[in-house]
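worker-03 picked up job from queue 'complexes'. Input manifest follows; two sequence lines, order preserved.
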Amino acid sequence: MAEQVRAPLAGNIWEVIVAVGDTVEEDDELLIIEALKMENPVYSPCNGKVVEVAVTKGDQVQEDDLLLVIDS
Amino acid sequence: MAFIENIGLLSVTPGMIIMWVIGLVLIYLAITKQYEPLLLLPIGFGILLANLPETQLMTQGEGLIWRFYHYGIEWEIIPPLIFLGLGALTDFGPLLAQPRLIFLGAGAQMGVYVTFFSAYAMGFTLEEAATIGIIGGADGPTTIFLSAKLAPHLLGAVAVAAYSYMALVPIIQPPVMHLLTTENERKIKMQKSRTVSDREKVLFPIIATMVIILLIPASAPLIAMFMLGNLFRESKVVERLSDAAQNALMNIVTIFLGVSIGGTMNAESFLQTEAIFIFVLGLIAFIISTASGILFAKLMNVFTKNKINPLIGAAGVSAVPMAARVAQKEGAKADKRNYLLMFAMGPNIAGVIGTVMAAGIFLAMLR
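worker-03 finished. Artifact:
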């Protein structure tokens, strides 16, 4: 089942921690969004494998933009 | 012989030495702990300069630093220009997306009024009490603006108190937040706000200027500059002006502001017992503002299904964006998947307007 991970707030992609193919567990840090000079980690909602990474470091994202997809 | 007589060292007083220590401490805190360095570094240095004898730096009519102070602060030019830059930096989106958050910005001004009455009860004049109370708004330029108009002899103390407590927001606020909220309340996830159109963002500064100034004309210098800066930003057609306002201009006037404030803090005027009261009352003002913002949010939750996380009420204290960051951090501690930051910016920005309006009310009543 494909789980879409969307941006919980608007900001800049500070760091993409995982890559396509990585196995992740629930609550792992997937990437970090910078807003107002704060680093905000985005956590995995489930266990599974990363099948798509839709953003790269430096991208500007709005709330709800697709960040990555996990196959669980 | 004339040279020996003019050596400053011979005129140093104990009071001056105390002020040197204070100035050096501020410089130290600015550099090593990064406590509001943009203000506290030049203020600290200005204190040193103001307490070196025979320099004539603050001599009325001719001193270098007196001129910065007179033309920048006494003439009330610098604080409005800082507001021009702040307006160009501010995104009203989070507030426009959830307009009810403006009440949190208003509620958090309670610390200003409670402190005003307390200071007056303690024996300060109405003008002095208002200047001390406005520290609770956590808004440096407004504090300076009001002090220069109502109680210039307190300027140094209230400015240092205001900026010190702004630097200490991450330390002062969390205990108050924990005391007044339950774990469950801190976990409240707020519903997504509506999207704000670009047109709304352009109309807002224009309409806000007219409404606020029609209500409180005395707030005009600050509100007008704030909203003009915001209009520069949102119109998107004067990028050069917006850039100048938020960068070059802001930095330039900040230099003059810091040095001028420090220049007023000579030993005779600063080392009065009043200074201690100002620092204590300023801290109380901050704490009460934080508390009232939180409690106001809890009150609003009684009347709405769309619950507000009370932590963002604390962001009504207009230390932008520091207080919003503190709300985010405390919310994430309760539930790491809770992202309060942009919600907290709503009351944070509303608080700035609230503090300016409070200052305008004081001016209208007392000038």
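worker-03 released lock.
Chain B has a mean pLDDT of 94.
Chain B touches chain A through 13 residues (CB under 8 Å).
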